[in-house]
Every structure is written in structure tokens, then in C-alpha cells.
Design brief:
Mean pLDDT: 91
Number of domains: 2
Number of helices: 4
Order of helices and strands: HHHH
Distance between the termini: 79 Å
Largest sheet: none
Radius of gyration: 26 Å
């Protein structure tokens, strides 16, 4: 008995589609075969078949991000230097 199929229509950036097709073709698959494999594996594992999580950064990195945001917003004032020598001299004093 033949399995019934259904059409799936989706939108994707042209460049991403071409890159994905090239990747899957190198693996001996078509894009529809790869999508079917993804869906089949999702059903087997009961979810997305790979880790999906927000990026987690350590405390030091998070603090550096916040400092960069504070500098960009003007909350932290920065000093400009007229030469690298002036900068290095200032660093030596710290």
C-alpha cells in the first residue's frame, strides 16, 4: 500500500537554500530528503533533534558586554589618545 504524501511549502533565503542544497547534494541527498530526515528524527526524539539553547556566557564576558553597552550609551566616559605612546604611558601608570 502506497503512503500518502502532503506538500510542504516554506520560505527561506535564496543563498541559504543554495548552500543547503550543495551540502545535502554532497551527502547524496536532495533538500526534500534532508527535510524529511529532520522531521522523521524530530518525531523519533520527540523534539528538535539537536540542542537549541540561548548562548550562555561566563560572568566576565557578560560584564564586558555591559561595559561596552555603557560606553556606547555614554554612561562611561572614555579618554581619547593622540598617539599609541600616550596610551601606553597611561597604561603603565595604572
Amino acid at each position: 500500500m502506497a503512503t500518502k504524501t502532503a506538500a510542504l511549502n516554506m520560505r527561506i533565503e535564496s543563498k541559504k537554500k543554495a548552500e543547503a542544497e550543495a551540502l545535502y547534494n554532497a551527502l547524496g541527498l536532495t533538500l526534500p530528503q534532508a527535510v524529511n530526515m529532520f522531521i522523521s528524527q524530530s518525531l523519533v526524539v520527540g523534539g528538535i533533534p539537536f540542542d537549541v539553547r540561548l548562548p550562555g556566557y561566563n560572568r566576565e564576558t557578560e560584564e564586558a558586554f555591559q561595559e561596552a553597552r555603557d560606553i556606547a550609551s555614554g554612561k562611561i566616559k572614555t579618554r581619547s589618545y593622540s598617539s599609541t605612546e600616550e596610551l601606553f604611558n597611561d597604561l603603565d601608570r595604572e
